[in-house]
Amino acid sequence: MDASNPTAEQLQTRTANCPTHGDFESKAIPLPTFSNKPGKVIWSRCPACSRETAEREAAAERAEQEQARQQRIEDRMNRAAIPKRFRDRSFESYIADTDAQRHALGVAREFAENFPEHARRGSTRVFAGNVGTGKGHLAMSVAKHVMEQGHSVFFATAREIVLMLRARWDDRTAPGELEVLRMLTSVSLLVIDEIGVQFNTDAERDQLFGVIDGRYRDLMPTILTTNLNRKLLLGAIGERSYSRLREEGNWVPFDWEDFRGKKKESK
């Protein structure tokens, strides 16, 4: 056989050199042909370079996906009206040093992790206790977990909800009361913060009842936070709303010292 005229089998591999990784075995890759004539071939590049390129591209794709995921979460937080100060709250950053704090954390985690079941039942949780005890922290942690699972969330103080329902009174271009009520009663999870920090008029109680009753009738989960005890909460929201909360709700006490006050004292 003429060594100067190698066969196709002999052309399957050859030694090539990579400036970075040195010699490597390059393989012939036949190009498609539509005739009986031998087709052209291309030679494989350095496998180490190929792996590094693939790893860089995969890392870039993961970074792009993570950035897109973070943007989706940020967009959801904006739609949920979650204040920027609360957006870094998480279960992991919640300090639980006592049995009572661990109980509160456990209730919040269970609610978040089993949200589909609570959505089926229309469960309610009332986080009640002193100012600065972490009620908002755990409520936000639940909200973030629920959002990351693709559910809709809306956060507002009780006072803000009343103002939203009344906005059309002063601004004819604002959403009407019925439109706002439909949004508040249809969102997957509603967090009502600072129940009791309002004027506590009969009109306000009626408007809050419309929200609580609408969610109760449609089996929509709700989290409420309040600084009030049970008796004062009953007075703030009225007997009808209080009765709705009790049926599928759990009262979660936050009866320890003010976290924020302790932080200030330690400085």
Describe the structure.
- The chain is an alpha/beta fold.
- It contains 10 helices and 8 strands.
- It has helices at 47-80, 99-113, 115-121, 135-148, 158-170, 177-186, 202-217, 230-237, 239-247, 259-266; strands spanning 13-18, 22-30, 41-43, 124-129, 153-157, 189-195, 222-226, 249-254.
- It has a 5-stranded parallel β-sheet with strand order 5-6-7-4-8, sandwiched between helices.
- Helix 5 runs antiparallel to helix 6, helix 7 (202-217) packs parallel to helix 9 and helix 8 crosses helix 9 (239-247).
Topology:
Blueprint: E1 13-18, E2 22-30, E3 41-43, H1 47-80, H2 99-113, H3 115-121, E4 124-129, H4 135-148, E5 153-157, H5 158-170, H6 177-186, E6 189-195, H7 202-217, E7 222-226, H8 230-237, H9 239-247, E8 249-254, H10 259-266
- Strands, count: 8
Which ranges are low-confidence, i.e. pLDDT below 50, for 5 or more consecutive residues? 1-7, 263-267
Number of helical stretches of at least 4 residues: 10
Order of helices and strands: EEEHHHEHEHHEHEHHEH
Kindly report the spatial arrangement of strands forming the biggest sheet: 5-6-7-4-8
Name the CATH superfamily assignment of the largest domain: P-loop containing nucleotide triphosphate hydrolases
Our count of domains comes out at: 2
Estimated share of beta-strand residues: 15-25%
